[in-house]
Design brief:
5 strands; Ubiquitin-like (UB roll); 5-stranded mixed sheet; single chain; 2 domains; alpha+beta; 5 helices
Amino acid sequence: MNSSGPLCLDVNGRRHLLDIPARTVLLHALRNDLALNGPKFGCGLGECGACAVLVDGDCVRSCVVPVGNVVGRKIVTLEGLGDAQRPHPIQQAFISAQAAQCGYCLNGMIMATKALLDRNARPNDAEIKQALKYHLCRCGAHVEILDAVRRARDAITPSSQS
């Protein structure tokens, strides 16, 4: 029980009241309480990036962020970008570039790409690599991932990045 009452989270444009302790990590609230499985549990230490979400537009590691720290802030998960019927242009770019082998890292790669393109609509290769630097992929799909980010960059105009 949360002694201070339910916590209100704004996730993917919807408000959710959760009666959980404020120290609960955001990843657990998203996956266990809201059934949002885009963010993955990878390392649990904030190092691999599989759990990345956007908080007020910044890419953060949800496995180390207490829910109490994000109350009143805008949280976006992979599910908040698009779906199978209408994927976001970034998601479509990753599909088109076949930028996955196992796919476990893709949540973090896509969320990092979204944060990058929201702040820099025309990143060069060095800026793309810097944005993805701390998102780990063990399958070796790095070339395809870079291609996907370039495709997304070229497909998205600043006015269509919502």
